Amino acid sequence: MIFNSFVFLLFFPLVAIGYFFLTICIGRNNIKVANTLSQFLLLAASLIFYGYWNIAYLVLILTSIIVTWTSGLLMQGRSTGIKRLVLTGSLVINLGILFFFKYYGFFTESVLFFFRGNVQFPSLNVLLPVGISFYTFQALGYSIDVYYGKVQAEYNFITYALFVTFFPQLVAGPIERTGNLLPQFKVNHAFDYDQVSSGLRLALWGMFKKVVIADSLAVYVDVIFGTPGIYPAGSLALATFFFAFQIYCDFSGYSDIAIGCARVLGFRLMTNFKQPYFSRSISEFWRRWHISLSTWFKDYLYIPLGGNRKGKIRQNVNLIVIFLVSGLWHGAAWNFVVWGGLHGMYQIIGRNTASVRTAIAHSIGLGKESWLKKIMQLCITFVLVYFSWIFFRANSMEDAFLIIGKLVKLPSELVLNIFQIGLKETVKEAILVGYGVENAISGFDRNNLIVSVFLILILLISDGLSIKIPDLQAKIVQMPLVLRWAGYYSMFFAIAASWNTESPMFIYFTF
Question: How far is CA 462 from the centre of its chain?
Fold first, then answer.
């Protein structure tokens, strides 16, 4: 089941009504009974939500739940040696399942390529279960937390199963921490009007980002990246630019809906995005982009590897390792590994040249608070992220290098066109013909181009306001009633007008 479907629009209100009936009506007389029944309701709803795609997926997620829950019980109060043995078993089983279903094909293809086909592997047509990377990491985080004594093992199986399967964030995060989410299932959540309205506003904004912005940009992006060889450099440049905002709106839109739906029910999930395209460095970008994953890798891989405690060389190695693993986590293909490696190299170069860059900026009069310096940092960071998105979105490494090769030639082509047909005609051709808008792209024309740019501007203005006004939601609530509801209805009708009955999947569902 996906958020942008009529099924979910019916499913969620029914779950919320049933949940609040238990917490309010039964909770008045017996909070303990109400909490137990509400856990059963949410767990049943979560299993239905996940099994809606393929009921066979439930076997895998229940296996992960049983293994990690049992490992927690076996580690509680035991010696370090026993805990280490149990944790190793939990890691091997869960990562083994993840490897088989997500990476078996990639592994065999890579080995066959390296050995020129002189190795034989059984051919398996394995279907990737939705969200397996997300719930596996969340469950493993619990096992690791119990091992280090950060949390106590959970003895109630239903409570723990709900922690892993909680439907708003089950298939695409945020990847929650045990200490934040698990205790929330042990308390009764009464109906709270402010929380419900706040959650609905956030979910509405998330749906707008997904259905109106991301899905609109996808029309252009999918066609251009589908056959990059037949389109000019301008089309590829624009498609990459659009993809940068498509994936942001698609994924942050999912996070907003997930956090909003959870908030309606009284649960607080961690923030997953904080205006990433306003970052002034790559390290800041990763503090703002997919925060739950980047902090997961920091807590459970980077720090255990030594972090920055064992010298610069070791720190650089650790950074490369976590970003290569992050790339592989995103997809079983070499282009994802390269994407992760690029961000690792960005981090290393950025950290090791910080003092030099500061000295150069100071020497040319760009102080720490210089607005020109801030703009330059924003632009450079976006260009670096923009370049890396080529590898992330390209269907293969060959396509990625083909696109880069064309983009390298774009400036010289534009200069040549200016001399041949003049600046005015060059601009016109670049915007309309050179960018493929007048080519055979079904469902995308000049008007779509203008609307897409306008939607991106709306997004950037919203993110900019969120930075300047941290509690933007509170300010919106204080707006005049007419203006506020005019905004709500505008988003609602935009979503209705853009709604696709085929319900396009969220990009991160494939990870």
Answer: 19
Whether residues 389 and 449 share a domain: the answer is: no
- Spatial distance between the Cα atoms of 169 and 172, rounded to a whole number of angstroms: 6
Q: Residue 480: CB partners within 8 Å, gap ≥ 6? A: none
Is residue 439 within 8 A of residue 445, CB to CB? The reply is no
Q: Is the per-residue pLDDT at 307 higher than 90?
A: no
Q: With the C-alpha atoms ordered 460, 464, 470, 471, is the resulting torsion angle positive or negative?
A: negative
Length of the chain: 511
What span, in angstroms and rounded, lies between the C-alpha atoms of 302 and 322? Answer: 6
In this structure, the answer to whether residues 421 and 511 fall within a common structural domain is yes
**Alpha-carbon span 469 to 481, nearest angstrom:** 20
What is the C-alpha separation between 170 and 173, in angstroms, rounded?
Answer: 6
pTM: 0.92
Question: Domain tally for the chain?
Answer: 3
- Final residue of a structural domain among 363, 394, 425: 394
Angle at 260 between CA 389 and CA 254, to 5 degrees: 25
Asked whether residue 112 falls in the same domain as residue 231, the answer is no
In the block, tokens 């706040």 appear at 198
Give residue-wise pLDDT tens across range 55-91. 988 999 999 999 999 999 999 989 999 999 999 999 9
Longest CA pairwise span in the chain (Å): 83
Phi/psi at 299 (5° precision): -75, -40
* Distance (Å, whole) CA 320 – CA 330: 15
State whether 45 and 159 are in the same domain: yes
Give CA angle at 170 (459, 226), nearest 5°: 55
CA separation for the pair 335, 399 (Å, rounded) = 10
Q: Which residues of 472-506 are buried (b: 16+ CB within 10 A; e: fewer)?
A: eeeebeeeeeeeeeeeeeebeebbeebbeeebbeb
457 and 375 belong to one structural domain: no
Rounded to the nearest angstrom, the gap between the alpha carbon of residue 58 and the centroid of all alpha carbons in its chain is 23
Active site positions, annotated: 330
- Cα-atom radius of gyration of the chain, to the nearest Å? 25
Final residue of a domain: which of 394, 426, 446?
394
Distance between CA atoms of 220 and 497, rounded to whole angstroms?
18
**Nearest-angstrom CA–CA distance, 318 and 140:** 20
What is residue 163's predicted lDDT score, i.e. its pLDDT?
Answer: 96
First to last CA, the chain: 16
437 lies in which domain range?
192-273+396-511
